[in-house]
Write a structure and sequence with these properties.
The complex is a heterodimer. Chain A is an all-alpha fold. Helix content of chain A is about 65%, strand content about 0%. Chain B is an all-alpha fold. Helix content of chain B is about 70%, strand content about 0%. Classes of the chains: A mainly alpha, B mainly alpha. Chains A and B meet through helix 10 of A and helix 3 and helix 4 of B.
């Protein structure tokens, strides 16, 4: 049914969709292929438009089912078996899209935004240390200056509080 | 006076430990703290105005910690630099209308204590290469 449509996909779009099926985010795909996440998003959106589907996972599944039928493809880079299981893939897509309902699914930009994993805020302490990437030099410099200001203000507030308290307890009004 | 001896003892113990067991950030910070503390003690006056010698040492220490904070991948180095920065701001106290030498002295000396604590903890908890697959030391 979508044979002719998948045939219109470019090789790079196919590569991206295979990685999407392997649950890679745009950012991870971009890192793996050394291109910008924006380009990845753009190509995947084009692929979604060509295939006429609302989400990137649907596009990836269509491509995977097409490629599963082609014997020459079997030896190529295949997504893990788990992901090709339609029940699992559907469940995962639904989970990834959060509360995506039928109407929301037809809105590609909304699902794009949900699927796009946001980078965690770069905190100055190791929260979930293993999964965090190190802070950039700018972030480190920013945190050092920010912490100086924050600590100085906190100390000032604490001291003025103590001074006020001591004035209160020493006052003859008591 | 007792406070000075306690600080000196702690400083030598912790900085020695950091220089012995630490990676390059721990060692550099330990050296900066030792040099800064010794030099500050040598140049300190009576705190009746801005202590220019200590101010210069504190600025140099802050720059040192800042550079270490930029290039190290550890988080504690950011906090050491921040604490030194607050200590540096303490030199603004004599410019205020109401101040006294004791508060000024404490305001710039106080921050060395948490810095020692952080350095000790950082050296103790330093990720060490346990195998060829885990070489994220330093």
């Amino acid at each position: 049914m979508s044979d002719d449509r998948t045939a219109r996909l470019t090789e790079s779009q196919r590569v991206y969709l295979r990685l999407v099926l392997a649950h890679r985010s745009s950012k991870e795909i971009a890192q793996e292929l050394d291109i910008s996440a924006h380009t990845v998003d753009k190509r995947i959106k084009e692929a979604m438009r060509i295939l006429g589907v609302g989400t990137r996972f649907e596009a990836a599944r269509i491509l995977a089912s097409e490629e599963a039928l082609e014997p020459g493809r079997q030896l190529g880079p295949q997504p893990p078996d788990l992901a090709t299981n339609p029940d699992f893939a559907a469940g995962h897509a639904a989970a990834t899209e959060g509360t995506a309902s039928g109407t929301e699914r037809s809105d590609p930009t909304a699902s794009e935004a949900r699927e796009h994993d946001r980078a965690p805020f770069p905190l100055p302490f190791p929260l979930f240390a293993r999964s965090r990437r190190p802070l950039s030099a700018w972030q480190r410099a920013g945190w050092m200056i920010g912490l100086v200001i924050g600590l100085a203000m906190a100390t000032g507030i604490l001291l003025s509080g103590l001074i006020a308290a001591s004035a209160l307890f020493n006052s003859p009004m008591r | 006076m007792l406070r000075h001896f306690l600080y000196a003892a702690l400083m030598w113990i912790i900085c020695g430990y950091a220089a012995w067991r630490g990676g390059w950030p721990e060692r550099s910070v330990a050296w900066i703290i030792v040099l800064g503390s010794v030099l500050s003690a040598m140049v300190s006056g009576d705190f009746t105005g801005v202590e220019q010698g200590i101010l210069i040492i504190d600025i140099l220490m802050f720059l040192g910690f800042f550079v270490i904070g930029l290039f190290s991948e550890r988080y504690w180095t950011l906090w050491i630099a921040a604490l030194q920065g607050v200590s540096l701001l303490g030199h603004l106290l004599p410019l205020m209308p109401l101040w006294n030498p004791y508060v000024y002295n404490d305001a710039i000396a106080l921050w060395a204590w948490p810095m020692l604590a952080i350095l000790g903890l950082a050296t103790w908890k330093r990720p060490r290469p346990t195998s060829a697959w885990n070489v994220s030391a330093g």
